[in-house]
Specification:
CATH class of the largest domain: Alpha Beta
Helix content: 25-40%
Shape: globular
Radius of gyration: 30 Å
Distance between the termini: 62 Å
Strand content: 25-35%
CATH topology of the largest domain: BirA Bifunctional Protein, domain 2
Structural class: alpha+beta
Largest sheet: 8 strands, mixed
Number of strands: 27
CATH superfamily of the largest domain: Bira Bifunctional Protein, Domain 2
């Protein structure tokens, strides 16, 4: 047999066998179920005689290391199902698996005296499984079905070297330290409450960040001829049935009754925009018509999947719908891609990948229209000099799309923006424009969301920056610190001058010594501090101190304001 000593999946899968081996030696009445490799490590689901506790992980880990030291070879053979049933006669889970495996034989893995049902894919010996760590115990169900037997899952991680393991653990500590939920509380940005589970409460500082995001995107849209609209948060459920959202999102929608008529709170903004388009006849001269909306949407997410601002029940989308002709598609998509790249660069996000999701098996519209749309997406990316992949058959039934994925400073990938071509809703809502020949024709809709969810993007940026938001986005951009109370009037004069320039500024009014004021400002992650003492007051200057400790002494107001005006901070 061949081994996979350089295959991380084989390493993880072999570690799951190592875990099961140790458990069976320590707790021989435990029934094993399955133990696969995962994208991050491995786990094994088991039915113990008595439930494991977190304290048991250290005991199990010690036994695993003892098995590693024995350096058992990992062997794999095919045996008859009849023989397998004898080996696993006392384990109903394994017997069920044996019955469902096609063919007359099954795979059997062996290391020392331990056997397990397995299709293969291992490293050479247990001696190569040194660098692991068991992480936690959790509940699970046989075959992931809540109606089946409740099991316990032990999860772990493993790497080829100790250095890789230590790097991973350091990375996990960073993820915890810079978790946006932790930072949100520490920096007084937002909170969550039992009175509204899954609905974020934005504090003044957090709302300042959201408003800045909207202001930036609004400016970007205005530069590209978008017009802003606003549509109701609640609309008749008949509209959502017509749009198709009722059928696909019914379980995630909130409903109400007004004057004996059923209404739904919008889970997305598209139908409202279309109703505005339909208010009067449209000419080809109006196209492309770009309608932008910062719509507040609600979706009933299950409580188990809620995760800070990343997964909420109420969120704001920087939505836009572009009504255009098929001939205009490519140019409009190029414009959106340029906007995406411009926005991401503003937030210091440069590791960006694109993917085109193409026509699925079930689709609407003609093959020619799909080809035109997909070609428009492809050529737009080519002309934007953007590398991209193809996700065959993963488009929606109403059109292909571009997905935008970013990588943050901690190496994690996030899907943010989408550019979606839609043939379905123009047909569904019977929207048209009058072409140059005076005939009615269907427009194509491009659904565009560059931030996606503002709440989710806020969380991503907060973690990407590790709480140190850039100057333009920080809720408090500058804090003025005084050496003694005698400089407080000067600080107030400086405060008013900065407020007139729309700078978000505060004066430290505490009686703390300067060192304490600096420490507090650093704890609040404020980008800039202006230190003023007797000398600065006499010379009408400031001492500029950056969050990282860099300093620029004796800076005139004029030079400091120039830095602000020219975005040099």
């Amino acid at each position: 047999m061949s081994n996979n000593n350089n295959d991380i999946t084989a390493l993880r899968h072999s570690a799951a066998h190592l875990l099961a081996h140790a458990v069976c030696e320590l707790y021989p009445k435990t029934l094993l179920t399955i133990g696969p490799a995962t994208p991050d490590g491995f786990f094994y689901d088991m039915l113990p005689e008595k439930n494991f506790k977190e304290d048991d992980l250290a005991i199990i880990s010690t036994r695993m290391h003892e098995i590693v030291d024995k350096n058992y070879p990992l062997e794999h053979t095919q045996i008859s199902k009849e023989e397998a049933r004898k080996i696993f006669a006392k384990n109903p889970f394994k017997l069920e698996l044996i019955d469902q495996i096609p063919g007359d034989t099954v795979g059997l893995a062996k290391q020392g005296s331990f056997y397990d049902l397995c299709k293969g894919g291992h490293i050479a010996s247990t001696g190569l499984l040194k660098h692991f760590k068991l992480q936690h115990i959790s509940g699970s169900y046989w075959r992931a079905d809540r109606s089946n037997q409740v099991l316990q899952r032990i999860s772990g991680i493993i790497f080829f070297t100790q250095e890789e393991l230590e790097n991973y653990e350091q990375h996990q500590r960073e993820l915890h330290l810079y978790d946006h939920r932790r930072l949100g509380k520490q920096l007084d940005l937002f909170s969550f409450h039992d009175e509204g589970v899954g609905f974020p409460f934005f504090h003044p500082k957090g709302k300042a960040v959201i408003n800045t995001l909207i202001a930036y995107m609004r400016k970007l849209q205005q530069e590209n001829e978008y017009q802003e609209i606003s549509t109701p948060m609640m609309l008749s459920d008949e509209l959502w049935r017509r749009s198709g959202h009722y059928e696909f999102y019914h379980d995630k929608m909130y409903f109400s009754v007004i004057d004996e008529k059923n209404y739904a709170i919008k889970p997305m903004n598209c139908p409202g925009s279309i109703l505005i388009y339909k208010t009067r006849p449209r000419s080809y001269r109006e196209l492309p018509l770009k309608l932008a909306e910062y719509g507040h949407c609600h979706r009933h997410e299950l409580s188990g999947v809620l995760h800070g601002l990343m997964r909420v029940r109420a969120f704001t989308q920087d939505d836009a719908h572009i009504y255009c002709t098929a001939e205009q598609l490519e140019h409009e998509i190029i414009t959106i891609i340029q906007m995406v790249l411009q926005m991401l660069s503003k937030f210091n996000l440069h590791d960006i990948t694109f993917a085109i999701s193409t026509r699925p098996e079930k689709y609407m519209g003609s093959d020619d229209l799909w080809q035109t749309a997909t070609q428009a997406l492809t050529q737009a990316l080519d002309k934007s000099h953007a590398s991209y992949g193809i996700k065959e058959g993963e488009g929606a039934f109403y059109g292909p799309k571009i997905e935008v994925v970013i990588q943050d400073s901690m190496g994690r990938n996030w899907q943010c923006g989408t550019i979606q071509v839609d043939f379905f809703q123009p047909e569904n809502f019977d929207i048209t424009y009058i072409n140059a020949l005076g005939l009615k024709q269907r427009p194509v809709i491009i659904h565009q969301a560059i931030f996606g969810s503002l709440e989710r993007f806020f969380a991503i940026i907060l973690e990407h920056c590790k709480g140190n938001l850039p100057f333009f986005l920080a809720p408090v951009q500058i804090k003025i610190l005084t050496i003694t109370d005698a400089q407080k009037p000067y600080a107030q004069t400086l405060y008013q001058a900065l407020k007139k320039r729309s700078v978000r500024v505060e004066v430290d009014m505490s009686s703390d010594p300067l060192a304490g004021q600096i420490k507090n400002a650093q704890h609040e992650r404020i980008p800039l501090m202006l230190v003023v003492g007797k000398r600065e007051m006499e010379t009408q200057t400031v001492a500029l101190r950056y969050q990282d400790g860099r300093q620029e002494p004796a800076l005139s107001w004029e030079n400091f304001f120039k830095k602000i005006d020219e975005n040099l901070l």
